[in-house]
Amino acid sequence: MRMFLSLVFATALAAATMTADTVPATGGDIEITMIRHASVQIEQAGKVIQVDPVGRGDYSNAKPADLILVTDIHDDNLDPDQIGKVRKPGAPVVMPAAVATQAGSKIPAPTTATANGETKTVAGVSIVAVPMYNVRRGPKPGELYHPKGRGNGYIVTLGGKRIYFAGDTECTPEMKALKDIAVAFVPINMPYTMTPAEAADCIKAFQPKIVYPYRYEGQKGDEAFLKAALRGTEIEVRGQ
Question: Is this structure's pTM higher than 0.85?
Fold first, then answer.
């Protein structure tokens, strides 16, 4: 069902690479380009990070990656062919063990398997793997869309700024406990993650400076609802 819905979205909506936003940082601005759904390009001081690069996005203006992050096993996160297209020779790919198992030799070395809670430095970038999972939502009773321990959200630090990619997750205790997040990418992709209201409550708990709703297909009503729910706070909401 999830693959079917993804294909419907892919055919119904035109993918477009947006103009990069900037966030001031030590050593040069961080440039953030929302590509599509879960796919994001980050660049700072000449270093390019591609997050969940998937071929349904428009990569015509994308830059080759020095580092690639993959969050989970689903086809809106994991696309070995697209990884090969955007990856510089020798660029490492960071992924959960479940992704490494599923992809196998389709993603050649160097790769780094990272478990929930681990901190590693890869390609000169500090990376924290944050648990991403459903608390209560799933396809049927007793089953969750994203079980705890399978996928990773990530915090990367560039130019002294901590940037958080939540991945496909509901509002978890681990997310609420985050500190010093400059930019957060938070999902509002129902039924798999959170409603805008749930996301807003979670965002208020960990207080990022800037938040991007993502992992949805650009429904302006959802984006507007999130902005309204965060009105009166100091959190800036930037849209797709």
Answer: yes
The residues near 42 (Cβ < 8 Å, ≥ 6 apart) are 30, 31, 32, 33, 48, 49, 51, 156, 158, 163
Going from the C-alpha of 79 to that of each of 21, 45, 56, 158, 179, the distances in angstroms are 25, 27, 10, 25, 31
CA distance 20 to 3: 29
- What stretch of H or E contains 203? helix 196-206
Six-digit token pair at 208? 């990022």
Phi-psi region of 159 (alpha: psi -120 to 50; beta: other; left: phi over 0): left
How far apart CA 90 and CA 100 sit, in angstroms, is 17
Residue 210's domain spans which residues? 2-237
Query: Mean pLDDT of successive 10-residue segments in the chain (240 residues)?
Result: 42 46 97 92 97 91 96 95 97 98 96 98 98 96 96 98 97 98 95 94 98 79 87 90
Give the CA distances from residue 171 to residues 57, 89, 239, in Å, rounded to whole numbers and listed in that order: 26, 37, 20
Collapsed DSSP state (helix, strand, coil) of residue 10: helix
Number of domains in the chain: 1
pLDDT per residue as tens digits for the range 68-88: 999 999 998 999 999 999 999
Give the up-direction half-sphere exposure of residue 90: CA atoms within 13 A in the CB hemisphere: 1
CATH number at residue 96: 3.60.15.10
